[in-house]
Amino acid sequence: MSAGAGTVPTAAAAHVRWATLRRTTKLRRARIGLAIVSVLTLLVIVGPWIAPYSSSEFVGAPFTLPSGSAWLGTDGLGRDVLSRFLSGGRSVLAMSLLAAVSGVGAGAFIGLFAAHAGGLVDGLLMRLNDVLLAFPQIIFTLLVLTCFGPHTWLIALTVGMTHAPRTALVIRAAAVQVAERDFVKAAEAAGESRARIIFAELLPNVSSPLLVEFGLRLTYSIGLVAAVSFLGFGLQPPAADWGLMINENRIGITTQPWAVVVPVAAIGLLTIGVNFVTDAIARSTIGIDREGEQ
Questions:
Q1: Sequence-ordered alpha helix ranges (H) in 78-151
Q2: Which one of 213, 214, 223, 290 has the minimum C-beta count within 10 Å?
Q3: Which residues pair with 74 in a beta bridge?
Q4: Distance of alpha carbon 287 from alpha carbon 291, whole angstroms
Q5: Are 95 and 156 spatial neighbours (Cβ–Cβ below 8 Å)?
């Protein structure tokens, strides 16, 4: 990078990121959210090793209430609810993370490219983006899975594809302002490549809204991935999956509610935890922006 073209702005962007992180960790909602997400993530990781039974093992009669041999009772086929719950979180979390990373990554690149290119290229990309935004996420996801089958990687990729247009819109709006700054113009005058300008000049200066967007998309991914499994288009029996558990045991909710309540509570808490952290990052970013204006 040429001297003066981006050294100072890049350092300032790094300072803003650290300031955002410090302010975020001081907020109560961020600590609560991190605690919830950390506990559930740890439970998801170690769950299959501490489960008392195999996720597909029959341990009693269907819809048996909690007992000493099955602490959360059994499901509709007589399998241990606790064991299936401990083994069923990995799929939800893994697919949600993959969907958020792929969707936000693709959307961020499109938004940054459009903001820097400007003109006709920017207009065409944003109009195409508007067309993609017209498709409801759940309907598009179900359509793809109906055509190609409920593969784990396809679920994550399809959900990520539905996030990309929304992320592109947000990041493009943030990057347009940065693209007009003097240090970007200086980098262009120095002959820097478009890729270097996008990743070295624009990207560091939109990192705060990008973090907020990632948190939002991860929240939506958790709910959408679970919904797909609940509707029968996700992982198939006898796989252990929180969304699938809700679908399999909803008919016995009045008889043995734990088979439904536990995965619903886990999905809800995970969503709330991520949302708390995302909201804290957004609040910290707004606070830093206001300080910079004073």
A1: 81-87, 89-117, 119-133, 137-148
A2: 290
A3: 80
A4: 6
A5: yes
Residues 208-261: pLDDT tens digits? Answer: 889 899 999 999 999 999 999 999 898 888 889 999 999 999 999 999 999 999
pLDDT value at position 23?
Answer: 76
Indicate the average pLDDT of the chain. Answer: 88
Q: Can you say whether residue 78 is alpha, beta or left, with left for phi > 0 and alpha for psi between -120 and 50 degrees?
A: left
List the structure tokens of 195.
Answer: 């890729």
At residue 227, what is the residue type?
A
Q: What confidence tens digit (pLDDT) does each residue in 66-78 have?
A: 998 899 999 999 9
Backbone phi, psi, residue 197, to 5° = -65, -40
**Can you list the residues of the chain whose pLDDT is less than 70?**
1-20, 286-294
Domain boundaries 7-293, corresponding CATH code: 1.10.3720.10
Q: How wide is the angle at C-alpha 286 spanned by C-alphas 285 and 292, nearest 5°?
A: 90
Tokens at residue 75, please? Answer: 């499901």
pLDDT of amino acid 183? 86
C-alpha 237/C-alpha 249 separation (Å) is: 12
| Tokens linked to 50 | 């501490």
Whether 83 and 54 have beta carbons less than 8 Å apart is answered as: yes
